[in-house]
Amino acid sequence: MRTITKLLSTFAVLAITACGNTPPPQEPARVNDNPTYSTGYYSFQLVEELMSTANDVSVGERVAVTSPVWLAGGLRESNLMGLQLQQELSAELHAADLQVVEFKLTNAIRVTPEGDFALSTNYLELNETFDVDYVLVGTLLDRGASMVVTLRMLDFGTRVVKATAQIEIPRDVVRDMVYTRGTAIVN
């Protein structure tokens, strides 16, 4: 009985001391002595900056997230990086307690041998109007060694800028998207 009590006491002390120890922060992978982060890291940083610069933006308000577009492309072209950022920014804004409106949702689910689909980019399958408070727009600028992403959260009714954010994503991260997806995304 004493052995069991000692064993349980030792286990309890170990468990309590383990709870007090926090693991060291994870260092980013290093390529050529430079830290390399994923696009998710940069999306998180962008939303942190958006929320810190936000004027009169409240928890629970509704936002539509559009694809960041090439600044030099007449604001009419995006790419795989822009599409990926759109998805990650949607997730991060949702985590920041804003209601993200999925405007690509159709009114039905298409069941096909290739899969079941509820999203579309065909404007004929989508609603024409949306009940949103804000729209998130962004631009991409290729600077050679990096890609600059600039975001603005606009009041959908007044078109007033409510929040802004900007970040430079290193070329290595952009190249990683090309390598892992097999699609050229840089002009």
Structure report:
The protein has a domain at 44-103 and 129-181: Rossmann fold. The longest helix has 19 residues, at 2-20. 33% of the residues lie in helices and 30% in strands. The protein has 4 helices and 10 strands; from the N terminus they run H-E-E-H-E-E-H-E-E-E-E-E-E-H. The chain has helices at 2-20, 39-53, 80-95, 171-181; strands at 29-31, 34-36, 62-65, 69-70, 99-101, 105-112, 115-119, 134-142, 146-155, 161-170. It is an alpha/beta fold and 187 residues long. The strands form 3 sheets. Strands 3, 4, 5, 8, 9 and 10 form a 6-stranded mixed β-sheet that branches. The protein has a two-stranded antiparallel sheet with strand order 1-2. Helix 2 packs across helix 3 (80-95). The model is unreliable at 22-32 (pLDDT under 50).
In brief:
The chain has 187 residues and is an alpha/beta fold. It has four helices and ten strands; from the N terminus they run H-E-E-H-E-E-H-E-E-E-E-E-E-H.
